[in-house]
Amino acid sequence: MKHFHITATDKELKSSIQAKIDNLNKPKGSLGRLETLALQICLVQQTLSPELKHPCHLLLGGDHGIEKEGVSVSPRDVTWQQMINFTLGGGGVNMFCRQHGFKLRIVDMGVDHDLNNVPGIIDHKIARGTKNFLHEPAMSETEFDQAIEVGSQLVDECYTEGCNIICIGEMGIANTSPSSIWMHLFGNVPLDECIGVGAGLDSPGLKHKREVLHQAVDRFINTTSFSFHDKLSTKETEHIIRYFGGFEMVAAIGAMLHAAEQKMLVMVDGFIMSACALAACMLEPNVLDYMIFGHCGDESGHKRMLSLMNAQPLLQLSLRLGEGTGALCSYSIIQSAVNMINEMNNFDNAKITKYF
Q1: Per-residue model confidence as pLDDT tens digits over 76-129
Q2: DSSP characters for 297-344?
Q3: Active centre residues (catalytic)
Q4: Where are the alpha helices (DSSP H) in 111-198?
Q5: Which residues pair with 3 in a beta bridge?
Q6: Interior CA angle at 155 toward 97 and 320, to 5°?
Q7: Is residue 310's pLDDT more than 90?
Q8: Measured between alpha carbons, how far is residue 7 from residues 4, 51, 242, 262 in Å?
Q9: Reported pTM
Q10: How far is 69 from 264, CA to CA, in rounded Å?
Q11: How many alpha carbons fall within 13 Å on the CB side of residue 229?
């Protein structure tokens, strides 16, 4: 994997930023999360006057070999059908991108369908879906490196246009399955606590999904001699990512890492993108300084996964659509934090007695 040089945000300005926030004409701390969010954004941008420029959204699509084991209520055809629907502006992701002024890039990372002649879809197809990780690794090292590189390249394209805040979403039937396994192996959380209903499995379907994922993890442990320990090496982390992950998920990891490298804000969506964020943090812990977690979704285990990163989501709206929709919903709150620190008056200018 390519090396990313991600530095923690420089905290030298922290006291000055906090002083500006505390001197806005309001009771100290009264704007709660907006204040801590403004502080984070200022530290990322190294300024007391932050701005959000040319927000972009990457919608990454890919199919998963594990889908063939019946772990999702939705068939894989839904992946390519939804990808085409996105080009026509009819998806949830389209609506929220329009509402919040995001430029949308729809990217085929590995959909099991010929989409290269569909206007509006960027072709970065690595293969027509990953392999079935119940029996073998989902992707090769070469495919893993390629997906990381594409994610990085997509961020560069946004950065060149002037973007300093990026949102990432996914479309890939069965991608809650690798997400659950990453959570289990990276967080040492019991596997059953990581597995949810995905797009809407019933009780027998959930039971079957658990059985399949347990078999897959047992095979992985038996063939690799994996054991849980506090500090996984980069090599071990990469192996887990490529053994179970989807092409769209690995591209998201590459995008997150390179965006942080470029000092951009990274908006993190629901269960699947939080799993990608967790994997990115396992590779480069400093990436967490640049992440804003949009929401806590309804997928079982999402709250626990966020806690593994000490992440504080902005919204809790019982969402589980994916596509990046929950993160996009949170953008107005991010904008409010920026407006607060830039536009609110302070006690001196407003000639209001500072009472604390």
Answers
A1: 999 999 999 999 999 999 999 999 999 999 999 999 999 999 999 999 999 999
A2: -SSTTHHHHHHHTT---SB-------TTHHHHHTHHHHHHHHHHHHHS
A3: 323
A4: 141-160, 176-187, 191-194
A5: none
A6: 45
A7: yes
A8: 10, 21, 25, 10
A9: 0.96
A10: 38
A11: 8
